[in-house]
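Supplementary Note 3. Input sequence used for the single-chain structure prediction.
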Amino acid sequence: MTGPPAPVAAARVAVRECLAGLPSDVPVLVACSGGPDSLALAAVTAWEAPRLGHPTGALVVDHGLQDGSEEVAARAAEQCRALGLSSVQVLRVQVGSEGGPESAARDARYAALEQAAEASGSAYVLLGHTQKDQAEQVLLGLARGSGARSLSGMPRRRGRFLRPFLALPGSTTREVCAAEGLTPWEDPHNADPTYRRVRARRLLDRLEHELGPGVVAGLARSAGLLRTDADTLDALAVTAREELGPGPWEAQRLAVLPDGIRTRVWRRLVEEAGTPRGALFAVHVRSLEALVSRWRGQGQVDLPGGVRASRTGGRVSIERAGPVQWEHTGADSLDGPDRPTTDPTTHPTT
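The predicted structure, written as C-alpha cells, is reproduced below.
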C-alpha cells in the first residue's frame, strides 16, 4: 500500500511533531484564511490531530479590508468543514488605524484568535507560517538594523500559538493543496509592492536566483541559531535584573555588566517603569548607556511612555514622569520583544 505524496507526508510529520507532548484532550484550531499555507495546514491537521486525540476546528478571520472579504471568509470556512474540521468559526474584526494597516490588522487578528481559543477550552492555535516567511522576517530585520532577538524571527511556539511549518519550504503548502484537490485563495495584497513584505519576498527570489538555492533555508536556519543565543542572553539579563533589586541603582553596578546583558537590563527597567513593550529603540539605549559610561553631569533621559531616567549622586533612577506619549518611529530599532514587525499571519494567504 502506497503512502501519501511526499509533500503531504512531510506536512503531516511537521504537524505531528508540533503536537507531540500536548495534552490530548485540548482542542487544536487552525487559523485559516483560505490561502495555500493555512489551507494546507487545515488539511493535514484534520488528518493528524484526531489521531492524537485532539478535538479540531478552524478560526477564519475576516478583516473587512477588501471588497468581497465576507465571501472569501465563507469559502475558507466551507473548505475547512469539508476537510473534516469539526468546529469552524468566522471571526469578523474591526481594524483600527494605529501603527499602520498591517500592524493594526495583526493586532486585531491576534486578539480575536486569542479570545476565540480561550472560549474553545484553552485551545491551541496553529499558524501556517513557512520557512520563507521566517526568512522574510530575518531579511526585514536586517534591513532595520535590528539585534539578535528581532533577527531570531518567529518562534515555533509562543503561548497558545504554534507554527508547525516553519521548517518547510513555502512550495510545500501549494503542493499539499494540489495533492489534496484544494483551491487556495490568492490574496491580491501579496502581489502589491506597496507592502515591504512583498518587496522582501521578491528580493528573496532574486537572491535565490543570484546566489543559488539555499538562501531562504540559510536565513531561516540563522534565525533558529540567533533565537538560542537571544534566549540565553535574556535569561542572564533576568538574573542580573533580580540581583540589582529595587532602584535607584548604583551606576557602577550597571557599568560592570557585560554590554549584551546591560542593554537587556535597561529594557526591563524601563518597561517596569511604564514604557510600552517594543517602544524602546537603540537611540534611547544609547542615552541610557551614557548615564553610566559617558557621565558628564547630563540631564534626564526622556523615554517612551512618559518615563524618564536620571543620575544623581552616583545612582540611576528610572520612573514614570508624566502622561503616556509613545511615538513609534519605526527606525533605529533595538532587540525588541518577540513580536514580528511583519508577522506573516498578517497575510490573508497564510
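Residues 247-320 form a domain with the Uridine Diphospho-n-acetylenolpyruvylglucosamine Reductase; domain 3 fold (CATH 3.30.465.60). The mean pLDDT is 88.
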